[in-house]
Fold:
Amino acid sequence: MATPPPTSSRPEIALVRRARKINRILAQTYPEAKAELDFADPFQLLVVTVLSAQTTDRRVNAVSPALFAAYPDAAALAAADREALEALIRPTGFFRAKATSLLGLSAALCERYDGQVPRVLKELVTLPGVGRKTANVVLGNAFGQPGITVDTHFARLSRRLAFVDPETAKDPVKTEHAVGALFPRRDWTMLSHHLIWHGRRCCHAKKPACGACPLARLCPSFGEGPTDPEIAAKLLTTQGPA
Structure:
């Protein structure tokens, strides 16, 4: 069972120490951890992150070369023919809604920011289709500003590792702030990568590979998946974007 959250506004020292030790172990386990979406500049990262909703990074990476060949910047994308844009991004799913977001955010970038992606969270989240998760991805990976990316993997691991209680884990913003309080700001972006990589490769949603997990001794949820090392090892994946 996961431990309850701290009762005070300041995290318990033991929780902070355990959380930071977990991050160190994950850093050693995944030294190559990084964003798994392909991008060349902040605009491309913003676009592919919007496209990554409800699909895999691999699928987004497959469509992005043709997309950016056709629309290399905000001005080009803002002027895109909707049907042509939808045809390019159709494989990512929800392509009509995503096309609306991409056309809207590109127009907003041109109208408000001279076609450039803003470096401030409160400005990023005013763009169509851009929430805190997307904004933090862009801030952390395009601009080097600390940001916590609460996707489904991050939320699941935050709950299983008892960084937050189950109720808090249901709210991305509460999870972002609660987990952020456990770590120095400089660690936020890489912490996000570490948890997301571990979630994709070991701590799976339906059957975590507990018996092969480097965090086994520190995890309050140990046993949610197979604990036999040989059985658990078969669940591990070195798969990239997922």
